[in-house]
Amino acid sequence: MSDSLTASKSPASSSGSAASNPVPTIRLESVHKTYDLGEIQVHALRGVSLSIFAGEFVAVMGASGSGKSTLMNILGCLDKPTRGQYFLDGRDVSGLTKTELAKLRSHKIGFVFQQFNLLSRTSALENVELPTIYAGIPIAERERRAEQALERVGLADRAGHFPSQLSGGQQQRVAIARALVNNPSLLLADEPTGNLDSRTSIEIMDILQNLNSEHGLTVIIVTHEPDIAQYAKRALEFRDGKMKKDVLIQRRLIASEILPTLPSIEDEDDLDAIADRAAPSGS
Ligand SMILES: Nc1ncnc2c1ncn2[C@@H]1O[C@H](COP(=O)(O)OP(=O)(O)OP(=O)(O)O)[C@@H](O)[C@H]1O
Ligand SMILES: [Mg+2]
Question: Going by C-beta distance under 8 Å and a sequence separation of 6 or more, which residues neighbour residue 189?
Fold first, then answer.
């Protein structure tokens, strides 16, 4: 883990949240995941044991191919361990069928991806509404829920826009609203800032921190960027399918404190203009 990620050595599972709520939201016991490609087998996870409690904010780090997305897919009930057990809110979900997992997922878990994954010919509001259809929410309530979710990410005024009419950061906010629309208790985000510039990334972290602190949502993100991990409360590092580090973030960054210190978009435009004027022609 990078030096810039200042952290203590004690695992977060010994923190206060564990004492007040003895049943972890997530408990993995010796989870293995092997992808069977016929000739070869890929051991993506090799015996991961882990507890995460309600209200935690965890960053998952590690090199490409270390098993981060495989872990997230299992946590999100999109995939199942090959071996080992996964307890979600105390219930062993390792043996559930695909249909049972899908039902569980639609009520408990919101998922956000690096590529936003919005439907392009569908408005922001309709994109956000989609999971309510799968969850069997009555028609009359779907739109109201979607509007509320868009409000929570500060995009109420963009409900009718199509993804192509939104900035990258706004598209990711729509994706977060979509993940929130069924009121999950767990939000999983696989590199949510991977396609965004640094200011927009911090705006997304601001939304996630707010959902975590104000609404008690348990948040788990994958990130390659140590600066972004610094906004979490706890960081895990994976290497070759194993969890190598589990630390509490000591000097946690608070996005709402950082954002006012950054140049605004208009200032950045001004700076670009100054830079353009200053640059020798032809460069
Ligand atoms: N569906 C799959 N079939 C076969 N192998 C896979 C599959 N998904 C992942 N793998 C392999 O499992 C290992 C872990 O992959 P994973 O996607 O979890 O890594 P990651 O840490 O998310 O990497 P990145 O940072 O590049 O996203 C890799 O060796 C990868 O090639
Ligand atoms: Mg990945």
Answer: 111, 112, 113, 176, 179, 208, 219, 220, 221, 222
